[in-house]
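User: Show me a protein chain along with its predicted structure.
Assistant: Here is one chain, sequence first, then structure tokens.
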Amino acid sequence: MTYGPSDGPFNFINYFLNYTAAGESPTDFFRWAALSALSAIARDNVFLETDVITVHPNIYVLLYAKSGVCKKSVPLKKILPIIKAVKNTKVIEGRTSLQFAISNLGKGQIGHNGEVIPGASGLIYSEELSSMIIKDDMTVDYLTDLYDYHDEWNSGTHARGEEKLERVCLSILAATNEKLFKQVFTATAIYGGLLGRTLIVQGTSARLKNSLMHKTHNPYTSKRLIEHLFLVSRLSGPMTMQPEAAEYFHEWYMAQDFEKHDSETGLESRLTVHMLKVALLLSLAEERLDKIVTLTHLKTAMDMVLRLVPNYRMLSTNVMSSEEQKQSVLVMQAVLKRGGAWIDKSELIRNHWYEIDMANLNTIVEKLSMGNMIRTGYNPQNEPCYQATEYAIEKFLNGSNRNGASHDD
């Protein structure tokens, strides 16, 4: 098999697709890996000014597929050396806690010019996100907060004391499978907005089959990709949007009813920012590097982001049903321990504060009540309380005692 350069103008994303043409992973995995590279290298150096916010080109990208099916680690392995070769951003990889990773963003690292890389911009890279991030109570909160650019960002821990980071612009490129996805994207991550801030790229099938038994001649080189990223790293200042692109986006936005289609992921309210970020990156993929977002860039970005929407609906439904099921069992067990007595909501929370998702509790109680499993009421202090129904006691307590009680009592 032989690959040859196209006659068209250079484009970083298209070139990377050709550079990795022998790889079996889905094309979208390679495409979003290339966008992540542009994101990591552009850092906070370029941006789009609006009347309300400043849009930076950093993105969170998560490649999602069943284990072993789509070889999701290949695009990551191919793009990482290209990012590192530019030496203008800090790369956090390997198993670590997020707090330690953040500390490393604040440490001085030598860049391509022999000087310390300025600011705390960087890329979190992981071929399996759940195995990299050592989970603690602040992981989801930190990742959610750091999605937005910060001139200054303060963090305090018992071990390290207070840390101050400057010019924080964080990007993420990671992969996960269907089982491990739930370890990071819990109900808290969904309700808290982390899922809505992350671009979930799902792969279902390989783009080609390659037995690896035949050598291929491929004239596309990593050197050309590195050269382009090096030029991107030297850009600075605001990017502009062509008037026709701005007017098109305005008309599209004004015609949308985001509240009507809003979901628990919060994705819908963030679609526009995702689109603008990707549009900036598509402009930076062009050889001319004029920092201008064209109508073509914008429409392509909108299409790319909108194609991801079904992934969120599917994943959030799976996660929430799994989380709700576990939470429902926990709540039901706590109520049944009281037999037919009432348990105050405050007591339930005090006993299981580390297990119960507060944002989900009312929904769980409502469903258990509708299923004739618990009664709801109020104690003399007018606080909510719960009681197992006769049906639940008969089903889970009396029934289990009849079926499995010991005759030694």
